[in-house]
Design goal:
elongated, mainly alpha, about 170 residues, about 0% strand, DNA-binding
DNA sequence: GATGAATGAGAATTCATTCAT
DNA sequence: AATGAATGAATTCTCATTCAT
């Protein structure tokens, strides 16, 4: 990937995640990336292709994170690691996650490839722990996660993350 | 409000909530509402005005719901009622809530007028219960709520709401 | 003519003369006249009909002015009276004249019915005075008149009318 | 400036000057210029921007003309040169001048940047000639000019320009 | 006579995308 | 690879006009 390709991806991610895919003209992406308008189409075929590329990168990053978690032997600790993902995100990863969360709400672009691998780990871990209804329990945990993630991604530094994390640990 | 105005609002809500504000052309709204496109602008000034009208109605509906909850005397029960809002939504209210949740992710349209009154009730109730850090605790509860709401609104009938609710009651 | 008809005509004249016929929506005329939008069309058939009505009134006012001037016996004095028309306009007549002058520049609406009767008086008077080329001389005088009229109508109180008039009298 | 930009400017000038700015749709300009409608907006931002570009070019042409006149040493001759500007216009410059004169009558677009430099030259020249009230005298001369210009631009070949010019020279 | 809701044609403007260079 | 001029299809919005009441 050339420097300009990366620049396009970064600008697009930034803009898509703050304004929404449909609200961002490709011309603005090009401008912010410091490239010509045509270049986006040479590299990514069309606007949707640009989104796909970003989403693909996102999936890989998540897969990597999940991979690490899978290696934890204790299922209890594995589950906890999953739940604490939202708290472990670096600020520079926020745009990607914000984009992923915002796309959920749009029929057209929605895609559960993001949550599926996470849920799998949870179900497996819960089964190891002999939970009766692992699937429903996994949904519950994923709900908590989504709630925390939303709070953190949207309120940013306004919310007291440590307090939230502390409460979460006590409750769970 | 004339019949056609209502029809426009309903179609717009339906479409905005499933595809996203920016992805819906006014021509489609008009078509679905069975009115001329010009009528949208006569009644709501512009597309944003149409969104505002929907959002305003939403705020009023929420205010009403909150009002009822405020009348619960036992603070513990009041908090529980708040947390269980996502579970008590009628299916025909889903579009409004989906729209509200999706707008959160768009800088341009985001507006915390929805969550503020809810948080207020929580903070007041927690104070009555002499919680040490009512504000952070309220944020925590709101996180749970958001998580459940997202799950219910997005997965709809796929997820086992009773199971979730049961789990929630046990945990909290 | 009802009060509302007059109100429509006045608002339309005011608006057409300051912004130009094509730049004024009928809705604005209705609003400013304090009547419903539909009423304009009931009374004047269409927007063009409204302009025609104003223009017709204008022609009548001018015809009246010319009539008075025709009654002057001395051809020299008659010519002078013509030339001084721009200086004798009441401020409340400015909008009508501004409209007439602005329409001149639009092919579509241009119409020399305004200047023709004036030129006729001039040519007749010049013939009485045995001018060699009365037609060309009339054009010259009309040019002066147009120049003064433009200056007065556009600069309004900014320009020193007495000074202009004095100069005109001396020169001619 | 590309060929197409020039073509747009020429078509727009032609159309604006004959029908008036507000009476000309951009689609017509594009058609006449042989370009896509979108191109107008790419190059000139919006319809007003197109007008501005034309007006700007006009100002530069006038500035050039004035510059030449400024170089005349004899103030008497300088004034005469100014007065005779309307007579010295080439037919292909008529559209520009017609546009300028028609815009005068529209509040929204009116702009005295056209007349100001001309008046300045006049005032300076009259001061050199020790005129008592140079400013009022300049207004007078500008009135003459405007009158002749209107006549020439609107009547075109119908009017006998030589005769007018001859009369003007004799009178002044 | 008067209202104002409603229409539909068209106007300005945007924007993804193509293409010659 | 990269540019930026150009396109054309949509999109938002305007406005003269009609019509039921």
């Amino acid at each position: 990937m050339t420097e300009k390709q990366i620049s396009i991806l970064e600008s697009a991610l930034e803009l898509f995640s703050s304004k929404g895919f449909d609200a961002v003209p490709t011309s603005l992406i090009a401008k912010q990336a410091g490239v010509s308008e045509g270049l986006i189409f040479r590299h990514f075929k069309n606007k949707q292709g640009l989104l796909n590329a970003i989403v693909q990168m996102g999936k890989e990053k998540i897969a990597f994170k999940i991979q690490l978690i899978t290696e934890i032997v204790d299922p209890q600790k594995r589950i906890q690691a999953i739940m604490e993902i939202p708290f472990s995100l670096e600020t520079d990863q926020y745009p990607l996650w914000r984009l992923i969360y915002s796309l959920k709400w749009q029929q057209e672009y929605s895609d559960d490839e993001f949550s599926r691998p996470i849920k799998e780990v949870l179900v497996n871990s819960l089964n190891e722990l002999k939970y009766f209804d692992a699937d429903a329990e996994a949904d519950l945990i994923m709900s908590y996660m989504d709630g925390f993630a939303s709070t953190i991604l949207l309120k940013g530094e306004v919310v007291n993350k440590d307090k939230l994390l502390h409460a979460l640990r006590k409750k769970y």
